[in-house]
Amino acid sequence: MKEVAPKVHQRQREVPRRIMEVLNSIFLPDIPVHGIENLEIAQKLVQDNKPVVFIGNHLSHADFPAVYESFRRNGFPELEKTIPLQGPRVGRILAGKLLIHAYNVIRVWSPYEEPKNDKEKQKLLRMNREALEFVRFDLENGYPILIFAEGGRSPDGTLQEFRPTTTNYLFQVKPTTVFTFGIKGTREVHAPKQILPDAHRVDIAFNTPDNMEEIRQEFRRTSSNKQELKEKVMGYLRHRVYQSLNMLG
């Protein structure tokens, strides 16, 4: 595992991180956090080298910068190490390239993009295989992971169905603790196809933790096959994100 880890970690750069922090101070001026006591639990788990995953709704390229700032501004240095999973589209724009280098993004193939030829099929397989390896390494070495389980930004701002394949990442290391969250306001910061961002308040609510091994065992008893189990687990987590959004009103 250790031989693949440098490939992802070498992308992190201090200069892009500092640039993003300056931009975040301008375009993300106010980020009230609800359920901050749950971040205290997450920080303690990471300090004890326990695997932690954050799962939330996806509205904008500004989502992860906002989540990162919610950690940084509230004094959770261990959570600042959180690494997001993002699809290939994020690297097609300048701001996306900055995100990749600033936050050490793990690239995954978007479930909404079909490979157009054999070369892209091979790229899909390689990208997703490496992503699983990176996630396993990071969770085993004190790096929380952030996943947007809808598989892409919501086209209309509503919570979309969660992708069952997300469970492949959640069950890499046992027992993984998941913290679901809801985020609002980032579409006003940077909407799809918007070139320049706008300054806007963003609200984030973090829910109480879930032990993924306990959740899997609970749904395994009522599932007839692996696919049904994945769908039930992700349906449960989607409901937990919905609860988080309701905390924001």
Shape, per Cα inertia axes: globular
CATH topology assignment = Glycerol-3-phosphate (1)-acyltransferase
State the CATH superfamily name: Glycerol-3-phosphate (1)-acyltransferase
Say how many strands there are. Answer: 8
Low-confidence stretches: none
**Level-1 CATH class name:** Alpha Beta
Structural class: alpha/beta
The average pLDDT is: 90
CATH architecture: 3-Layer(aba) Sandwich
The end-to-end distance, rounded to whole angstroms, is 43 Å
Largest sheet: 8 strands, mixed
β content, as a range?
A: 5-15%
Run of helices and strands: HHEHEHEHEHEHEHEEHH
Rg, rounded, reads: 17 Å
Would you give an account of this structure?
The chain has ten helices and eight strands. Strands 1, 2, 3, 4, 5, 6, 7 and 8 form an eight-stranded mixed sheet that branches. It is of the alpha/beta class. The mean pLDDT is 90. It has one domain: Glycerol-3-phosphate (1)-acyltransferase (3-Layer(aba) Sandwich), CATH 3.40.1130.10. 46% of the residues lie in helices and 12% in strands. Strand 3 (83-86), helix 5 (94-103) and strand 4 form a beta-alpha-beta unit.
Give keywords.
single chain; alpha/beta; Glycerol-3-phosphate (1)-acyltransferase; 10 helices; 46% helix; globular
Summarize the structure.
The chain has 249 residues and is an alpha/beta fold.
